[in-house]
């Protein structure tokens, strides 16, 4: 993820997730097309995960897709960056 962000001249600030999705906090300039960045992040990570964990294929064999086609993106607005980092860090902790 960090290498893809670097290729797009963006910065991966935080990364975490749960069993069925991930959260990324990315700092990027307005010249970057978000859809292209997300598409590249999904494509590259899917290839790397499939190479490293070939046994995962039995979990997604029907659709042949590791990631869903959709995504959610939001801007941080006035939220302090440390609040967003804390939210992402806590995503895989039990409630």
TrEMBL record:
<dbReference type="InterPro" id="IPR036515">
    <property type="entry name" value="Transposase_17_sf"/>
</dbReference>
<feature type="domain" description="Transposase IS200-like">
    <location>
        <begin position="1"/>
        <end position="91"/>
    </location>
</feature>
<dbReference type="GO" id="GO:0006313">
    <property type="term" value="P:DNA transposition"/>
</dbReference>
<dbReference type="GO" id="GO:0004803">
    <property type="term" value="F:transposase activity"/>
</dbReference>
<dbReference type="InterPro" id="IPR002686">
    <property type="entry name" value="Transposase_17"/>
</dbReference>
<protein>
    <submittedName>
        <fullName>Putative transposase</fullName>
    </submittedName>
</protein>
<dbReference type="GO" id="GO:0003677">
    <property type="term" value="F:DNA binding"/>
</dbReference>
<dbReference type="Pfam" id="PF01797">
    <property type="entry name" value="Y1_Tnp"/>
</dbReference>
